[in-house]
Amino acid sequence: GGAIRSFRSLSGVQPTMTVDEQVECEQAVLRSPLFHDALRRHAGDVDPSLVMVDIWSAGNYGADEESTLRLARPLCFLRRDATDNGYARPLEGIRPVVDLNRMEVIRVEEHGNWPVPEASGNYAANRVEDQRNNIKPIEISQPQGPSFTVVGRHVSWQKWSFVVGFNAREGLTLHHIRYRDGERDRPVIYRASLTEMVVPYGDPGPTQARKNAFDVGEYGMGMCANSLKLGCDCLGHIHYFDADLCTSRGEPLKIQNAICMHEEDFGILWKHTDRRLPDSPEVRRSRRLVISSVSTVKNYEYGFFWYLYQDGNIQLEVKLTGILSLGSYPAGQKPAHGMLVAPNLYAPNHQHFFNVRLDFDLDGMANTVQQIDVVADPVSPDNPFGNAFRARSTPLTSEKMARAHLSLETGRTWKVINPSVKNHVGEPVGYRFLPGDNALPFASADAWWRKRARFVDYHVWVTPFQESENYAAGDYPNQSIGGDGLIQWTEQDRPIENTDVVFWYTFGHTHLPRPEDYPVMPTAYIGFLLKPAGFFNINPANDVPPSPAKAVGRDCCELAMVIPPPHELGIG
Question: Which of 205, 396, 497, 564 gives a 20 to 30 Å CA spacing to 105?
């Protein structure tokens, strides 16, 4: 409508660093006489234009300036030439401190003399010699086009329908996820999003101890999104969505192809061969719809891949790649809190913690979350062989009760149900939450970053829906003192049974670096799966037709397992 609908003036908080500031911070450092003097002391007479400056958040460690100034503490690197991998040559002893409001270096902190690593760490195709020459092409062909349809931001694919969203802070979001079951479009999730992530480093040394990054709340995962290109990030028939954002000055900022959507073959969906009917095996290929976005936050890449499956499964997989945050290290010494990946080049131990917000709407808004633990029955006359075990369901009735960790001992999962809607065997309809790999934070609970990231205190949180509660570490984590977000909201211990619930999941990846992670790290994977559990009457993928036989070669669907009759096997 061309009019401002609301405006709030805030004090005592710092907003997310903007994409403009990331560029301007580097320029401020490179023009600073203070930095030029420090550069000569640490690297000699080098060309300052070859210095690479990455903005890094300042955090809050109790200093007065951290509560009054808008700060950054960049990391600096020295390229050999304009296309060199600068991350391979860190300037370890130099830490400029930048006032982002004035865009000036207010001081340069120096931490002794460190060697500048000399080994090349280039990874670009035009700088890597002896590339493999025996790889045959794999072609993905969909001559009749894709199985999805797109109207604006609304997507329909087989029995799924949903709306694709995107914003500067969270990046990719999914809305109104529904599954067509017979004549009904059944809602599953109202909104799914990444709310926060933090990357704490585990080296207590003066050049590394302050390294932690809230990549959503401090930098904006959406603002850091890549413009994806066909044939590299995705394969097959691709549909792209642009992201329409704005700069800190209110100017339009379009990221073309920020979201990629395509179909993938995913192996066997289901299969059975009846030995009595050896010529009639039944097998179905699994196909999944992929909705993805990739963000580059300085040295690191994060790929966010949502998968929808034909059997009603919903999966999020985060793909971690890019370049390690590296430092230099004296020759002949072995680091205690990380790994040498090349001569004089060091990668500190670190962790990545993500938090995802799932606003459920399972056949309606009034849902309940159950904690499911598998327990063994005691040996008794009813269990004489000691083999019995069962699933124990605990309805979660309040926020504090819902705070929980994973439990390997009990195979702990969670189930979201709608108590008011029963399936054909008289049980509430539901979806199970199956966690994947995870971790606990190794930093002390008194560590500065943990005070600001209290969402890592538990793997699972459940809250009643409140429109203002969207980010696990609070609205303004940049330079915050902590205590915001989930830890604050759930202290109210509000009731969460049979209501509009929001399920929050924190999952972590512990990275102990290795030389094979250099110069570019092979992708690591972490995520979770949502699986229907009593939501459907039968396998919802029972109606998927078999794949057509191939005219050339042999398709897996043509293969049959032939088992001789019993008398030929000496049976009976």
Answer: 205
